Amino acid sequence: MTSSEQTLTPRPSPDDAPAPGDRRRWFALAIVMTAAFMDLVDVTIVNIAIPSIQRDAGASVSQIQWITAGYALAFAAALITGGRLGDIHGRRRLFLVGIGGFTLASALCGFAVNPDMLVASRILQGSMAAMMVPQVLSIVHATFPAHERGKVFGLFGAVVGLGAVSGPLLGALLTEWNLFGLEWRPIFLINLPVGIAAFLLGRRFITESKAPKALKLDLVGVTLVSLGLLMLLYPLTRGRELGWPLWGYLCMAGALVVFAALLSYEKRKAVRDGSPLIELSLFRVKSFAAGIAVQTVFGVALGIFFLVWTLYMQIGLGWSPLRAGLTGVPFSIAVSVAAGMSVQKLVPRFGRKVLQAGALVMGTGVLLYLWEAHRYGLAIASWQMALPLVVMGAGMGLIVAPLTDAVLSEVPREHAGSASGLINTVQQMGNALGLGLVSVVFFGRIGDRLAPAQVGPAFVHAFQYALWWVAGIMGAIFLLMSALPKRPAQHVEGAEDGELPALEKEPELVS
């Protein structure tokens, strides 16, 4: 394995590819997983520190909204482009550009002199994350042999579980500690040593890979996909605060027109020069198309639950950010453990049934949480939430790691970046749709003007109502999963290789 970029050949030669016994590929995995964890944490860590930012920096309500929404919008809009750029120019190169830019943007956020600079730095940070994150799955796809990817995606699921809860917890600790009198700034500055180390180690341990044939960046496709996503996600992100104006609905309707134009253009582009931004041929792969649908709807459920859950604990129950963060630890542990077990032990034996079981288990946990919230009301304690959170976390763990593996299982290597970008994009779209629904399923149940004594009961009632929606969505996910292959094939290395999926071979012969 070499750390030099393969500029003269379209894909690494067998000599450059990591050998099965080469430990360096595990260092590469640790590096890209660290980058994925940084992104997952950064999405949630800011929410905890918002009151401190507003007080210390004097940010307006609109600026506070853009500090959170700017990152999400820039991230979602550039994800597909980031994945394709990795296919064209090299995944290692784009990963290094992304993590370097992300680290620089984190420094700009931490040293922002006013709210406007913080907003601009957050948008830059989201854009750089969009260059970095798609390369994570692409590098895994290109670095590890098929029979090892189940274990790797199990680790990826564990990272997702840790990131889901670590962000709020870490944000609460850093804000309350007020290190060196810096108030909220350490939530961004903590990325600097991690990002610098990941950049330097990535240069050494990550092997370059790219599409096996020369591709060109589809600038028209980039414009259309970015415009369409912004037209869809901006009204969803800001709609509730702005009172759901008419222009927001017109903008979302216009996004459908833009996506239709994108689809038509990409079809012509594929025929003309074989270098579209979005590989529509991927959707002819059943595992990919079905997995993308499940991923989108699952993102809706998570988008609703995590925001509503945070509001329920901190505003409804009046808990501190630190107590709320600690309450989520059992959930995080359950996700991590179940994710590791699912792909390494359960999926090889039971296949699709593991994911369907995960949907049922998570739905059961939601219903159990709903029952406890109704029974104990405002008097509920953290330990009483532990059981439903463990059940929900176990269900989520059974889904997240195998689902990623199922979506990418039959994707040819040359389209790994495009597929990875699509996976992350639909996750963000699902989350945005979920956040948009929060105004209906949560805030819609809370009156505009509440007396202090009414806040707690109103939030508890709205939380219970929102959980019914999450449980219903988990039922829909269970049905959608019936379209996934019963036993997803291992990853196909490329159509031109003529290799059979690894599951069709004798296990002892797979290398």
UniProtKB/TrEMBL annotation:
InterPro entries: EmrB-like, MFS, MFS_dom, MFS_trans_sf. One of its GO terms (molecular function) is transmembrane transporter activity. Its main location: membrane. Residues 1-20 are annotated as: Disordered. GO terms for biological process: response to antibiotic. GO terms for cellular component: plasma membrane. Residues 1-10 have a biased composition (Polar residues). The chain crosses the membrane at residues 26-50, 62-82, 94-113, 119-140, 152-174, 186-202, 214-234, 246-266, 287-312, 324-342, 354-371, 383-408, 429-446, 466-484. It is a multi-pass membrane protein. It comes from the Bacteria. Keywords: Antibiotic resistance, Cell membrane, Membrane, Transmembrane, Transmembrane helix, Transport. Residues 28-487 form the Major facilitator superfamily (MFS) profile domain. It is found in: Cell membrane. Pfam families: MFS_1. Coiled coil: none annotated. PANTHER family: ACTINORHODIN TRANSPORTER-RELATED, MAJOR FACILITATOR SUPERFAMILY MULTIDRUG TRANSPORTER MFSC. NCBIfam families: efflux_EmrB. This is MFS transporter. It comes from Streptomyces monashensis. The lineage of its organism: Bacteria, Bacillati, Actinomycetota, Actinomycetes, Kitasatosporales.
